[in-house]
């Protein structure tokens, strides 16, 4: 089962539309981790599961989301409400008592995938304004593939191409 995570488009609706068109029937769910700068009633969000970012001003976006299906339990937020630009301590405390396997967030514009406190944290980076050591890629999103034994994260660029050196596998 595959799940797509994208964040921080900052008004670049075209790239979000391209991702939705390419993946809406290929992944189980598309999570949008905030800072779209679009209204919550934009038709793109009929296909995506959005949360509010610090640059979103439509109060109809939720602050966070707990997602559950037969395959995975996911906690989604943008990150600004937990000061993730400083560290992950506040969000770690928030999710410590939740029965979830994956935490997904954005806000920092830096991609990452790592297990902390027995939970996989995934930041897809920014699809429009990337920062950090992978900024040269020009924008990224991530797909999580869930199997019985592993959680596999593959990062993609704006051209919807997998970035070979950004593929990670974590045991379940």
UniProtKB/TrEMBL annotation:
InterPro entries recorded: Calcineurin-like_PHP_lpxH, Metallo-depent_PP-like, Phosphodiesterase_MJ0936/Vps29
Molecular functions (GO terms): hydrolase activity; metal ion binding
Gene3D superfamilies xref list: 3.60.21.10
Keywords from the UniProt entry: Metal-binding
Coiled coil feature spans: none
Residue span(s) of domain Calcineurin-like phosphoesterase: 1-147
EC number(s) reported in the record: 3.1.4.-
Cofactor(s) of this protein: a divalent metal cation
Leading EC class: hydrolase
Pfam families: Metallophos_2
Family affiliation: Belongs to the metallophosphoesterase superfamily. YfcE family.
Name this protein carries in UniProt: Phosphoesterase
Record organism: Weissella diestrammenae
């Amino acid at each position: 089962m595959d799940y797509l995570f994208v964040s921080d488009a900052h008004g670049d609706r075209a790239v979000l539309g391209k991702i939705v068109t390419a993946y809406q029937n290929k992944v189980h769910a598309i999570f949008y981790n905030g800072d779209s700068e679009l209204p919550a009633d934009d038709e793109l969000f009929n296909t995506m599961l959005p949360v509010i970012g610090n640059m979103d001003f439509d109060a109809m976006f939720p602050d966070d989301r707990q997602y559950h299906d037969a395959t995975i339990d996911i906690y989604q937020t943008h990150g600004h409400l937990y000061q993730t630009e400083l560290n992950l301590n506040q969000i770690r405390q928030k999710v410590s008592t939740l029965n979830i396997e994956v935490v997904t967030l954005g806000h920092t514009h830096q991609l990452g995938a790592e297990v902390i406190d027995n939970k996989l944290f995934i930041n897809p980076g920014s699809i429009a304004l990337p920062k950090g050591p992978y900024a040269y890629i020009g924008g990224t999103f991530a797909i999580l593939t869930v199997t019985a034994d592993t959680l596999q994260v593959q990062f993609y660029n704006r051209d919807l191409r997998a970035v070979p050196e950004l593929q990670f596998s974590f045991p379940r």
